[in-house]
Every structure is written in C-alpha cells, then in structure tokens.
C-alpha cells in the first residue's frame, strides 16, 4: 500500500450526484451474446430506480450496447425491489446480495438471463446488521465488512462465491476512546495478503467525531490486526456504502482510498 488520496468535497458531491441519477452497469465477463443467444445473457445488466425516496421501485434490464440506442421497461426487465437493489455485488456474470433486513436476512446469488433475475443459491445471513463495504480476495472469495447494531464492533464475513459457505468474525480493533461511542467503518481493500480497513471513532450527536482517520492493516486469512496507521490529514471516510466505491487497488497492488480533507 503506497497512497491514500484525499478528494475535494466537490469531487465527492459530483460522484454522488452521478450515482444517484443514472443507471449502474455491470458487464458479464463470460458473455458476449444478446438476449436471443443460446445462453440468454445480455452483455450488460442495467439497474434502474424509479420514483423518489421513500417511494422508489428498482428494476434490472439487459442490453448489449451502452454506446447507442435506448431501453424501455414496458414489457421488459424485472422488478427487484427489496430482492437485490441497493448493495448488489457483480462478479463473473453473477450477482450477490447480502440482505440484513430483520425480515429477510439472507445471502443470495443470482443469475440474470432472458431479462429475469433467477436465484442460483440462497442461505441465511443474520450475523451483520449493517454492511458498509466489500472487497474480493480472489474470484471466489468475497469479504464483507460492517458494524453491529450499536456500532461498537466491526464485523466481517467471508463468503465462498460458489457454495455461499459463510465464515463470520469480529475485527479486534483498538478500543473506542473514552468520550466516543462507536466506529465509523468505511473503505476496505485487499492486496498481497493484507486487508486495509478504514475506520474512525464517533461520538453521540451533537458531539463531534474524533478528528483524523485510521487504517487497520489486517493479515489475511487470520484477520489479525498487524498495525493501525493514523492520519491527521484525512478526516472521515470518502464513502461507507455498498453502491458507490471510494477505494481501489491497481495492478501493482497499490491501494487508493478517498477521504474527506481535514
């Protein structure tokens, strides 16, 4: 890990605006055919949201070309509201959805064919109450990070993408300092046997959060915290949700994370 990037507030605002008003596109890595092909897979699955919060409806529809043309939901696509909307994770032609709701605690693997979202496999998923971010160790190992209901624990889940076998655990972060009540856990990235976990310490409103930012360097697969890098320049996660990534790892294994500037 070599670099942490601090974006301007303007950049974060524009990123949020784009993600909030346009469709998100996921290309099926193993597909090159259109809906009429032998496998029924389109090159792209577009995830659309209609309406204004809280009265919103989500759909997914397949297309083969994002550079021209238009798409209609009239007699087309599939409604996915509360099934696989916010937080959908795309990988190698499949879609993974960790639902943490009290009435539907399940991890589901989907396949999108013939403009229908079909369940491939589904297992109970009740360990985490809130998932903030995810990363892939390899093509078959998905890591999910988030907090418990009180926010005073950072939890992780390791998912086998083929079998949906799940391993849960708690990250042994430094104790929350006196005067603060919870963790604000944001970006995570995996690189060369290490997981980089961003977090800060929060207070009960209207008290302010602790200044600065922390990056826990975690060994994989033991999940032992090797060290914590403290930064006084960064002050808050650039993002902590499942639908707008604010970190990445390049081909050289260098990790990039966006933070708010102090």
TrEMBL record:
Listed name of the protein: LVIVD repeat-containing protein
InterPro entries: Haem_d1_sf
Organism in which the protein naturally occurs: Flavobacterium piscisymbiosum
């Amino acid at each position: 890990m070599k670099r942490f990037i601090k974006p301007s507030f303007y950049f974060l605002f524009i990123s949020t605006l784009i993600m909030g008003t346009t469709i998100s596109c996921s290309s099926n890595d193993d597909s090159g055919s259109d809906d009429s092909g032998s496998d029924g897979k389109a090159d792209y699955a577009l995830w659309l949201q209609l309406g204004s919060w809280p009265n919103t409806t989500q759909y997914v529809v397949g297309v083969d070309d994002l550079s021209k043309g238009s798409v209609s939901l009239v007699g087309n696509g599939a409604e996915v509201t509360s099934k696989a909307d916010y937080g959908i994770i795309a990988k190698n032609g499949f879609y993974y959805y960790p639902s943490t709701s009290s009435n539907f605690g399940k991890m589901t693997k989907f396949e999108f064919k013939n403009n229908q979202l079909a369940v491939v496999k589904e297992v109970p998923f009740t360990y985490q109450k809130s998932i903030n971010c995810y990363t892939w160790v390899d093509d078959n190992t998905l890591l999910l990070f988030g907090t418990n209901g009180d926010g005073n624990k950072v939890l992780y889940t390791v998912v086998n993408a083929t079998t949906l076998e799940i391993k849960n655990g708690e990250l042994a972060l430094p104790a929350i300092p006196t005067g603060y009540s919870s963790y604000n856990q944001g970006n995570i990235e995996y690189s060369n046997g290490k997981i980089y976990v961003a977090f800060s310490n929060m207070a009960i409103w209207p008290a302010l959060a602790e200044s600065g930012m922390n990056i826990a360097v975690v060994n994989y697969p033991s999940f032992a915290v090797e060290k914590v890098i403290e930064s006084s320049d960064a002050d808050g996660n650039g993002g902590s949700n499942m639908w707008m990534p604010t970190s990445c790892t390049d081909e050289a294994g260098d990790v990039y994370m966006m933070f708010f500037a102090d």
